[in-house]
Amino acid sequence: MRPLLTEATGLLVDGAWRAPAATAAVSDKFTGETVRTVADATPGEVDAAVAGAARAARDPLPPDERRRVLEDAAAVLTGHETEIVDGYVAETGFTPGDARGELARAAAIFRMSAQEAVRLAGEEVPVAANPGSENRLAFTIRVPVGVVGAIAPFNAPLSTVAHKVAPALAAGNAVVLKPAELTPLSAMAIAEALLRAGLPSGLLQLVCGTGEVAGDALVRDPRVRYFTFTGSTAVGLAVKQRSGLARTQLELGSNSASIVAADADLDLVARTVARAGFRKAGQVCTSVQRLLVDRRVAPALTERLEAAVGKLTAGDPRAAGTDVGPLIARAEAERAHGWIREAVSLGASLVRGGDRDGAVLAPTVLGGLPAASRIMTDEIFAPMVAVVPVAGVDEAVRIVNEGAYGLQAGVFTQDVDTAFAAARRLRVGGVMINDTSSYHADNMPYGGVKDSGHGVEGPRYAAYDMTDPRIIVLNLKEAE
To answer: Active-site positions?
Structure first.
């Protein structure tokens, strides 16, 4: 079987991998070694990619052909599991288990999007209810927006790319994809899988490069009519400001909290948080950062959580038994370590962890986090969970709502009334009952409010949003 990345350069324009004008190295996030050299796209190369996408967008694929291509691409991806997993582990520093799980998700997203390709439909509009329009029949059809710009993050380079590319293609659009410069290999594998599945030339263009150059050139191009972006709030704001009249779907930062009521199943909380707060080294937008716990059960939960987190192993992601690999860069580990030390200096207690070895940060649990700590207000994006005692669910909801972010929240309680009251009051995009903020099924609407962005992912919802309604009105003759 021919490897997916044999010919891939990181610059895919009009169905061909081109030799780029400049290149950049992709490093192994644990060893620091260069694993591949890929394109560092120039503004001119981005312009060529957008021009090709604009040409291709004039001739959308029929829905059933979109379905076939997406299903076949899913099969290509799963058929190259070993190659994709190896590249994923190298470029992210995440474990092989994380890689295999995300590859399975990406393939499933392609298959779900394939089904949406043949489900998109408009609706009848009852214009006959308007006086003078009694003989008119009106209905809408959904038409592609044209060119979609997809800008992906480093922390989910398979599933997030799939969430952006597959629904856009299902809706009949052309796509210009810019992956994170730190993790381009997974996106390149997806692009090649689509080519091998028979995607017509031009419907997917890929430009690897920096956000400052390639990303900025893409965002400022008026031929792109829709942007789907995942990343920081600051960069998301820049995308919004620079993209003109193009529509945007933005999944941005978070400071995710899970609320623990006094009647919660503490063993369930500790077990789920030990996974949800530390997978991918905590570099997940919905990763549990704050546990807002009724102070009556905070000591008991802290004890259980310390024991659960104490079983996690950090280090080489390729080593058997490793649960937490390195952060995406040593500088990020140094920053997060600094935040933890700052919190301790302000009065937080170090329950577990707190050590750093290069880019590897030990799984950390903090207790008694003071309100003045930036961990209470900002996104640490690291393997750290803070236990914050509160008076009860009401105070916990207030703390979440007063914060700048609103992606997802968890609520642990045995009382259905408490659960529904919190779900109605929390100003977030999703509320998970008896689960953490980190739960995410790929077919659900996923997105945030406030500084966490707007719009949602999920194949059904994204594909619909990546089309425009076109109204068609028939002025019919009266029957003789």
So the answer is: 251, 285
